[in-house]
């Protein structure tokens, strides 16, 4: 009965995808108005119009009423055109040789903390800002994968997840073979499916084999083979403290812990922190190297009018101080409604919501992600 229910649900979800994204059942990112494009590039809208009239750079598509719009790929072309590093005018934000690739692990082992929502929006925000981003789905439930247009049981076959690169047998594959392009220019994805659970099952058997690389270093080694191609990697970790999560934390340069400001969620986070500390201590003794640029707590699904939630946020700030991000991620119907069509708020236009609802949600997202970007710049010793 369970299997038949799962198969029926899978077929319905696939039919929904075909209905939502015809004709090829593939997601396509919307175009951005000239005003949005100018803001993303960091210039005035009038300057983009001057470039267009002069025949320089990509030409905007002109719609009804003469409205001009650009794809994200064209926005990146504009960045390349305008970038003049020798004069200090940087429009392409890629890291330099002296700046290490940022590996951001988004973690919590309590479901409903907003972990995948946070990771997906962060990856897309950074891509919109012009960074080269690799999103790594380490959760066998594969929600990050689904949000980016791939249905795990239909589109991700055997040996096409990160497991293909970190497995212990002779069927290993190079990581570039499992990386996929997404409809976001500059954002690549390592998809997930249930196959990732095999790593949790294989690792206890492999622990006795002293000839193989320890489990805690395998993800770092795999990601290291492609780090030259990216500025930042965003790891969506499983909601459990297993071998995959520990491997991700050993590969990370920063940890982002999501927490919903309710007592049960905070109590769960307390156990997570204690367990994580103990486990990381064990792998450090076994030879793991941990060096985090920053650790931050992100308050998610926050309702400012909820008195107990406000008290809980104040309690966390009194304990963790600057390690709690200044801006919380507000609970928003806009994000929930976007999720109904397997989309994020960054890919849905403002016209899909009331202006106040959309503006409130996008401002909260930008504030949270902007804080994380500022922390990345600090780690790179860049001006914020």
TrEMBL record:
Pfam families: AAA_31
Top class in the EC scheme: hydrolase
InterPro entries: AAA_dom, DNA_Partitioning_ATPase, P-loop_NTPase, Plasmid_partition_RepA
EC number annotated for this UniProt entry: 3.6.-.-
A single MF term (Gene Ontology): hydrolase activity
Gene3D superfamilies associated with the record: P-loop containing nucleotide triphosphate hydrolases
Transmembrane segment boundaries: none
Span of domain AAA: 102-273
Keywords from the UniProt entry: Hydrolase
Matching NCBIfam families: partition_RepA (TIGR03453), PRK13869.1 (NF010443)
Protein name per the record: Sporulation initiation inhibitor protein Soj
Species, as recorded: Methylobacterium symbioticum
Taxon lineage: Bacteria, Pseudomonadati, Pseudomonadota, Alphaproteobacteria, Hyphomicrobiales
Gene expressing this chain: soj_3
């Amino acid at each position: 009965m369970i299997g038949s229910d799962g198969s029926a649900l899978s077929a319905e979800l696939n039919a929904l995808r075909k209905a939502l994204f015809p004709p090829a059942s593939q997601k396509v990112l919307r175009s951005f108005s000239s005003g949005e494009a100018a803001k993303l590039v960091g210039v005035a809208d009038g300057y983009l119009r001057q470039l267009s009239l002069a025949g320089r750079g990509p030409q905007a598509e002109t719609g009804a009423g003469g409205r001009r719009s650009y794809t994200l790929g064209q926005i990146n072309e504009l960045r390349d055109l305008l970038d003049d590093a020798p004069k200090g005018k940087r429009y392409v934000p890629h890291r330099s040789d002296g700046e290490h690739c940022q590996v951001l692990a988004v973690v919590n082992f309590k479901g409903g903390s907003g972990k995948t929502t946070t990771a997906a929006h962060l990856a897309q925000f950074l891509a919109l800002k012009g960074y080269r981003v690799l999103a790594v789905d380490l959760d066998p439930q594969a929600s990050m994968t689904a949000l980016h247009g791939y249905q795990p049981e239909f589109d991700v076959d055997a040996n096409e997840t990160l497991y293909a690169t970190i497995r212990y047998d002779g069927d290993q594959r190079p990581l570039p073979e499992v990386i996929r392009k997404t409809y976001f220019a500059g954002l690549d994805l390592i998809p997930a499916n249930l196959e990732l659970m095999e790593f949790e099952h294989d690792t206890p058997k492999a622990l006795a084999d002293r000839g193989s690389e320890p489990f805690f270093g395998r993800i770092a080694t795999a990601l290291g083979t492609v780090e030259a191609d990216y500025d930042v990697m965003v790891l969506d970790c499983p909601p459990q403290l297993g071998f995959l999560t520990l491997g991700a934390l050993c590969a990370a340069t920063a940890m982002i812990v999501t927490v919903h400001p309710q007592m049960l969620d905070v109590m769960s986070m307390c156990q997570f922190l204690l367990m994580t500390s103990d486990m990381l201590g064990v792998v450090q003794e076994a030879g793991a190297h941990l060096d985090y640029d920053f650790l931050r707590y992100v308050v998610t699904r926050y309702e400012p009018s909820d008195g107990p939630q406000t008290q809980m946020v104040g309690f966390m700030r009194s304990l963790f101080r600057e390690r709690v991000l200044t801006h919380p991620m507000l609970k928003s119907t806009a994000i929930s409604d976007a999720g109904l069509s397997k989309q994020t708020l960054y890919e849905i236009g403002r016209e899909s919501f009331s202006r106040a609802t959309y503006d409130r949600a996008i401002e909260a997202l930008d504030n949270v992600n902007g804080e994380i970007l500022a922390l990345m710049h600090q780690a790179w010793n860049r001006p914020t």
